[in-house]
Specification:
This protein is mainly α and 220 residues long. 78% of the residues lie in helices and 0% in strands. It contains 10 helices and no strands. The relative contact order is 0.23.
Length: 220
């Protein structure tokens, strides 16, 4: 297998994984609807930065150590689960405390907009979501070795494959953000914003609970 063949094969696997609806997509979509394109791109960049960090870690063997150590994996999994639940609870609370649309305000468009906050905070939210999810590291640990041709440096190949995954991820996020922009007039309504916060919050809490359950189910 040549380097080109390895990259194309990995791109197919990573591309399919990228477009499957999940936590990352929910975070970027929520940022695009509630805070605008800049925050959505920042969240997407944070997600990709976390993925890249895990990819490099897998290439140098750090993820192998994490997978081999039940204690390290459990601690990181529980930390990630707590982070997801807290973040999801905050979004649920944000969705519940929003003022319902008043009569004569279609979709609540006349309601006061949500404070946009810091773009840097959106980046950190995306970054933390991936860094505290050891399953991302395990994914790279399981896939990268399969796409390293003979005679090629595992470190360089791991970095290259992680970069490919980042490009695919950012392209997908850009498509979502731009599509959201075309429907911004409808999506900017207060009702849509409240529903988005609630749905994203539920997804985050559910994902956190699932991570915690996974940690508890690990064999001793």
């Amino acid at each position: 297998m040549t380097v080109t063949q390895a990259v194309l094969s990995f791109a197919l696997v990573a591309g399919l994984l990228t477009i499957v609806p999940g936590l990352d997509t929910a975070l970027v979509l929520r940022s695009a609807i509630s805070r605008g394109r800049a925050h959505a791109f920042a969240a997407g960049a944070g997600v990709n930065a976390g993925c890249f960090a895990w990819g490099v870690a897998a290439a140098v063997g750090a993820s192998a150590l994490l997978a081999a150590s039940r204690t390290a994996y459990t601690v990181l999994t529980l930390a990630g689960a707590a982070y997801m639940v807290v973040l999801g609870a905050q979004l649920l609370w944000s969705g519940l405390r929003r003022r319902p649309a008043a009569a004569g305000e279609p979709g609540g468009a006349a309601a006061a907009p949500e404070p946009r906050g810091s773009v840097w905070r959106a980046f950190l939210m995306g970054l933390g979501t991936n860094l505290l999810n050891p399953k991302v590291g395990v994914f790279y640990l399981a896939t990268i070795p399969q796409f390293v041709p003979d005679g090629v440096s595992p470190l360089l190949m791991g970095v290259l494959l992680a970069a490919v995954h980042n490009v695919l991820g950012m392209a997908w996020f850009a498509a979502i953000i731009l599509a959201t922009g075309f429907a911004s007039r409808w999506l900017s309504g207060e009702v849509v914003a409240r529903v988005t916060d609630r749905v994203t919050g539920v997804v985050l809490v559910a994902f956190g609970v699932r991570l915690a359950a996974t940690a508890r189910a690990l064999p001793a």
